[in-house]
Fold:
Amino acid sequence: MSDKQGYMKALKCRECGREYPLAATHVCEFDFGPLEVAYDYDRIKKSLTREAIQSRPKTMWRYRELLPVAGEPTVGVQAGYTPLIKADRLAKKLGIRELWIKNDAVNYPTLSFKDRVVSVALSRSKELGFDTVACASTGNLANAVSAQAASAGLKAYVFIPSDLEQSKILNSLVYGANVIAIKGHYDEVNRLCAEIAGKYGWAFVNVNMRPYYAEGSKSMAYEIAEQLGWRAPQHTVIPMASGSLLTKIHKGYQEFAKVGLITDTKPKIYGAQATGCSPISAAQKGGLDFFKPVKPDTIAKSLAIGTPADGFYALKVMRDTGGAAEDVTDDEIRDAIKLLAETEGIFAETAGGVTVGVAKKLIACGKIPRDESAVICVTGNGLKTLDAVERHCGKPREIKPSLREFEALLAQEEKVGA
Structure:
């Protein structure tokens, strides 16, 4: 592997195709299109075989040739390779033949898929010589940057909307990061961060480091394909905030086919949003190839991005693959969180409730056929969003330490259930 660029070739504009050096930059200076990493797939194909992958540790870095670092990763080396759960009980409830849950609620170290993207972004930031990292975040990214920066000895600044869930704020503060709460919604936070990145020259993982950062999401697709026995699923349901995760999971399937690890069976890609912040879903359902920005109003704060940076590309992926988008209300989100927990023993945050709730709708209306197989991506842990469900799960029954009282309680339950 080259010390300077590994298996990367350049940064390439997604619009005009112009190429740029592998530096900390993210926008084409000619048409302002987003930049993404271009790879030497011919070299990768020779090195990245099924046998090579299976001989490596069970982390996202077993696919390192397809991830944008020049050398070995130095941050977040234990991230990824989360379970793919065959969800038979949930499948029966939703009325589909086969259902899988890709469970990033147990990702290391901060219990969300953001640990993947931050592992890549911070490893690459260190290669480029940065000692201060930062991000704009709806919560999970702030947690991941704070934790992984601490482990790497990097200084961290995380910028969040001030109305975030308290558990996510605490989960950033505990690592000693500089947590800056902004009185505004995420899009306002993001605009401020773009200004700060330009002035201070820090490694903002989702601003100037975005081309590298976003590539970390592909590892979820690689794992799904490997865990399914080296095949892409027929249908994948993915939560959408910026839309980046959806586009990168699609890219991950394509790359695995390109280097010969799977056969491309044209997997269909579906996007899930909360009704209170559904610019991409609304556009897809309206048959549009552009979205209208919205002001977020939903309990799914991790998806509350009203002006999604990759919305246009997410719409294109769904259109090109024959997929679709759908959205769910706050009550439907809570019901779906409880349904997943009660059937599969998986406690997802609100974004997981969105994907499960949307999958339920897509199956019910026939957009995902009942006699086929689907994967639902759960991207964060329910312990992060307790306030969303705490008044919707009932209360414990309290008794004295008495067998008589317990038997009276059982008798009462049997009477109610009769």
Observations:
- DSSP finds 16 helices and 13 strands in the chain.
- The longest strand covers residues 155-161.
- Residues 240 and 272 are 6 Å apart (CA to CA).
- The mean pLDDT is 96.
